[in-house]
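Kindly draft a polypeptide, keeping tokens residue-aligned:

***
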Amino acid sequence: MKLKNVIITIISVLFIGFLLGKLDIQTNHADTTKVQASKLSHSQNKKDLIIYFSLSGTTKNAAEQIKKDTGADMVRLEPQKAYPNSYDAAVPVAKKEMQNKKHPAIKDTIPNLKNYDTIYIGFPTWWRQPPMIIHSLFDKYDFSNKKIVPFTTSMESPISKSMPYMKTMAANDHATLLNGFRYNDNNASLKKFLKQNNLIK
């Protein structure tokens, strides 16, 4: 009888251990599922952001159209010391910055980039390249692991002239740079670009 009781006790202990182990596995699986769902939800909640620099208002128009198509948040990039109001007065100031490779200080108005996955960066093409304030933007903020979509406005210069500069800045931040586009008031062409690059449905 004693041997029988010992065997029953051993079997009972093993069975209880099996049940506890199974419960622990189920609990861990549930916890893992919750974490994965949380990460997925966080990613889905991230929005797009448009950062644009505009002197005459042309690039602002482009940014507003992108906002309309994508629903992205939008912020204007401004220097601490404003450029002169007139185009003729602003040109020599901007040209001097470019010749001296001076990166003008910018106002602290950019939202927390951690809340965004895709960031549109817009600017007018000045002397076949981005204005120096775009360099200031990358100096001050961290675009690592972001998807950057550049867009430009220009009377004649294609965006390809600015892309080497954007590639360098993006690479330094370990960001992914998409092919950009030059906005020329053609909203249908803009929407086509966004769809082709899976930026909108």
Remarks:
- The first strand starts at residue 47 and ends at 52.
- The two ends are 75 Å apart (CA to CA).
- Confidence is low (pLDDT under 50) at residues 13-43.
